[in-house]
Every structure is written in structure tokens, then in C-alpha cells.
């Protein structure tokens, strides 16, 4: 079993629940961080001290307060940790249940498990920790498995999400070309954007752009 684990969560109640499970699993060292910057700093220091963390359990949402941070979400923390220390196992522990967002965590950030906070939290988190330690696949709360297998969300990528999000903010396709170039997202030509938006309308059977945005919101894509 893991010997050193970091819990990143800004709510004490969640820390207590996760710590209880880790203690039941006989994890000897458990540390806590209430800010993403603090969590990354602890991980860096542990690496320098040659006593690295083996597992990070992180929420996705961190409330802003007086403290200024460079990292302000679980996704940003996970991306930074994976880039610097790819061998650290990461389990997300969150109330987020939107399929596309969860799928991106697995596909793009290579997380090792996802646990939905809820009634079965203790059992699911304990099982997820054990599965992450044993490198077992499909390490996700049972009620979310079907969401990841839904073709509607599995066949669109982050580029599609960015396009729909920009459309939902009222950007025209002409303006979007400039914005995508500024953000370093490609393809960004007006013709590419038009073709992709039309493809999304056909895929989701949307009558127009407004209808497309409404469908995407209903599916939790944006």
C-alpha cells in the first residue's frame, strides 16, 4: 500500500473522511493542503528531501479567498504535478459529474482514479485507492462508468468544447478565428471553424448554433 499521501481539499470535512480511509489502509504518512500552490510546494519539497509522495488525492474546486495563488483549480494542480512528477498516482475526489470533464481528466491529464463525492464516498474512495495502487483500469465510481462510455461525449474532443464555449459567450466565427490564434489553439482558420461547427450541428442534430449550445449545456459539455 502507499506509504505517503497528500490530500488537497479546501474543506476540512472531506480531509477527515479521506484520512480515515487512508488510516484504515495503514498508510503511515498523510499530509494536507488547502491550496493548490501549497500542494505543489509540498510535493516539490518531498521530492527534494528524497521522501516523495506516492499518491495525491485532490478535489477539483478550490474557493478563492485573500490568498493569491498561481494554481486555482484541481485541473491546474494535476497538470503541474503530472508534468513535473509523472510517477505520482492521482485520484480526483469531487462532486463534478459531467462526463466530458471527467473524460478529459483521464485522457489528457492521465489521472489514476475518479471518485464522486456522495453517499458511497467511503467505500468508493477506499476501493479507488486500492485499484490505483494495483494499477487497475476503469478506476471510477460505478455510477459514472456509463457516462464515460456514452458515445455522445466520447467522440468529441477539447477543441470541440472550446468552439462551443466560445459560441456560448456570443463570439462570432470570424471573431473566434482571432481568439483561437491568440490562445494558440489550432486549427484556427475561419474555414476550419465553420466546418467544425457545421459538423457539430450535424452530430448533435442541432437546428442552429443556439440549439447546439443548448444541447451541449444539457449534456454537461459546457
Mind explaining what this structure looks like?
There is one protein chain. It is elongated and about 55 Å long. The longest helix is centred in the last third of the chain and has 14 residues, at 190-203. It has helices at residues 12-24, 36-48, 74-84, 99-107, 121-133, 145-148, 151-154, 158-168, 173-183, 190-203, 209-218, and strands spanning 4-8, 29-33, 55-58, 89-94, 113-116. The protein contains 11 helices and 5 strands; from the N terminus they run E-H-E-H-E-H-E-H-E-H-H-H-H-H-H-H. Strands 2-1-3-4-5 form a 5-stranded parallel beta sheet, with helices on both faces.
Q: Describe the main β-sheet briefly.
A: 5 strands, parallel
What is the number of beta strands?
5
N-to-C CA distance: 37 Å
Report helical residue fraction.
40-55%
What low-confidence regions span 5 or more consecutive residues with pLDDT below 50?
none
Major sheet strand order: 2-1-3-4-5
The amount of beta strand, in percent, is 5-15%
Order of helices and strands: EHEHEHEHEHHHHHHH
Mean pLDDT: 89
Morphology call = elongated
List the total number of helices. 11
| Secondary-structure class | alpha/beta
CA gyration radius, whole angstroms: 19 Å
Amino acid at each position: 500500500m502507499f506509504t505517503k499521501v497528500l490530500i488537497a481539499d479546501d474543506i476540512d470535512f472531506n480531509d477527515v473522511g479521506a484520512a480515515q480511509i487512508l488510516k484504515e489502509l495503514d498508510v503511515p504518512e498523510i499530509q494536507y493542503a488547502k491550496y493548490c500552490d501549497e500542494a505543489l510546494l509540498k510535493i516539490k519539497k518531498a521530492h527534494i528531501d528524497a521522501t516523495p509522495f506516492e499518491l495525491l488525492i485532490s478535489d477539483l474546486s478550490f474557493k478563492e479567498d485573500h490568498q493569491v495563488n498561481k494554481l486555482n483549480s484541481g485541473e491546474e494542480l494535476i497538470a503541474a504535478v503530472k508534468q513535473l512528477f509523472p510517477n505520482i498516482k492521482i485520484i480526483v475526489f469531487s462532486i463534478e459529474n459531467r462526463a466530458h470533464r471527467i473524460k478529459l481528466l483521464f485522457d489528457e491529464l492521465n489521472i489514476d482514479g475518479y471518485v464522486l463525492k456522495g453517499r458511497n464516498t467511503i467505500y468508493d474512495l477506499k476501493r479507488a485507492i486500492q485499484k490505483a495502487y494495483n494499477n487497475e483500469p476503469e478506476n471510477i465510481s460505478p455510477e459514472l462508468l456509463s457516462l464515460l462510455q456514452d458515445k455522445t461525449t466520447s467522440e468529441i474532443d477539447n477543441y470541440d468544447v472550446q468552439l462551443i464555449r466560445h459560441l456560448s459567450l456570443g463570439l462570432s466565427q470570424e471573431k473566434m478565428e482571432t481568439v483561437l490564434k491568440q490562445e494558440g489553439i489550432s486549427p484556427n482558420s475561419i474555414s476550419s471553424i465553420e466546418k467544425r461547427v457545421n459538423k457539430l450541428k450535424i452530430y448533435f442534430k442541432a437546428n442552429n448554433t443556439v440549439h447546439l449550445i443548448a444541447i451541449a449545456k444539457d449534456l454537461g459539455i459546457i
